[in-house]
Amino acid sequence: MIVEVMGGKSSKETTQRHFPSYSSPSFSHQPYPQSPYPQQHPNHTPRHHHAPAPYEHGGHTHHKNRKLEKKFSIISDDYQTLEQVTDALAQAGLESSNLIVGIDFTKSNEWTGSRSFNHRSLHHLGSGLNPYEQAISIIGKTLSAFDEDNLIPCFGFGDASTHDQEVFGFDPEERYCNGFEEVLRRYREIVPHLKLSGPTSFAPVIEMAMSIVEESGGQYHVLLIVADGQVTRSVDTAHGKVGPQEQNTIDAIIKASEYPLSIILVGVGDGPWDTMREFDDNIPCRAFDNFQFVNFTEIMSKNVDPLRKQTEFALSALMEIPSQYKATLELSILGFALYVLLIRRTWLLLAGIRLAVIVENTSVHVPFAAHQSKPE
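Structure (tokenized):
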């Protein structure tokens, strides 16, 4: 029997977290004006990143033997402070995590704050924090206790330079932000120079997150996506069908369940959110329930104490993290990568000619190359 390894990629051993190194045309060098760091050229641009897709869209991988029931433990909501939520996460078994942030810069941000943000763009910069900044700040404060190096990869998507195909990094030097405070600072420097566009797809940022997990050697990560609305659905899409952006996002979420990666989608603005709830509850074929949707606007509009609202939002966003982390342990994907093996069987024919026939594709998890070598 001949076994050929298909897919997967080597991960570099590094002492610092940094943008994955790709010789890819997605690393755009087009001028992209933004507020620079000192001594930088005024037109220095954050690089555009488009992670090489670790799979082909539409190629669903089934894991009947590994799929878990939705039996995740729920953390009680009887908390009064963010510190209590953090303690509860630690007690539930979360040992460490690395935060990745993805921000939606699609044009719909200009009007989806009509009711919830006083007719202003959701990216409006004022003396107070806008919804994006609030969400990043609250989640960042809560998860920072579990992030050993405090380095946060941050990406934008959906603007005029990336559309639904790429992401761009927040830092012009291609390094990660040092803490959520720098995330917020870089966000404020970038926003005034962005041209919002579209369409909306979460696939590129999810794919980038998977690549970062691989680069880390399979460490557990949490991808925080903050977005103003649903994935773009074409008016030509028939009822009961999904459009290309929806299908790409669904495929990415399914593929991400093969990685030690949790996805939290925070919805800001007026919505609607029905498709996001479908993503949360009804995507089949996942190795584990890796996606959590939280309606930021609904929680923060409640007539209760502001600190209580922050705590409720943090809890709603993070309450499945402990069980998702445990699922990665049960599935043996923490520190492991999925490789698809093509199994060939060989038969002896007349005149000594051998015929190799592909019998089936199968999936197996093997240690990340950053820790051990690939199977031969």
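The two ends are 13 Å apart (CA to CA). The chain has a mean pLDDT of 74.
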